[in-house]
Amino acid sequence: DVQLQASGGGLVQPGGSLRLSCAASGFIFSNYGLGWARQAQGKGVEWVSSIDAGGTIPMYRGSVEGRFTISRDNAKNTLYLQMNSLKPEDSAVYYCVKGSSRGQGTEVTVFS
Question: Which stretches of the chain score pLDDT less than 70?
């Protein structure tokens, strides 16, 4: 079974940084593009960022481009999301995604 376990969330002030990690198992990690999605309280799930299997082609939604960096370590079966210059509107539960699979999320709260 595909397992995607996100971690690294927490409380941070605006302008702060967090690094999310996603430990993956149950599939050949290096064969698949992966991504991050988020869901703010009371809102739907939105795509945040994706990266190809080789880790060379990142993509971002416009509101996070220049602030977030997606990366992966295929040797460690781990996906990352470095989040800098965080804003209150970034507050959400963040999920690691593979196709239609979404693992357990990690909560990020940006507060003043």
Answer: none
Secondary structure of the chain in HEC code, one letter for each residue: CCEEEEECCEEECCCCCEEEEEEEECCCHHHCCEEEEEECCCCCEEEEEEECCCCCCEEECCCCECCEEEEEECCCCEEEEEECCCCHHHCEEEEEEECCEECECEEEEECC
Give residue 78's Cα distance to chain centre: 11
Distance CA 98, CA 71 (A): 14
CA 96/CA 59 separation, integer angstroms: 14
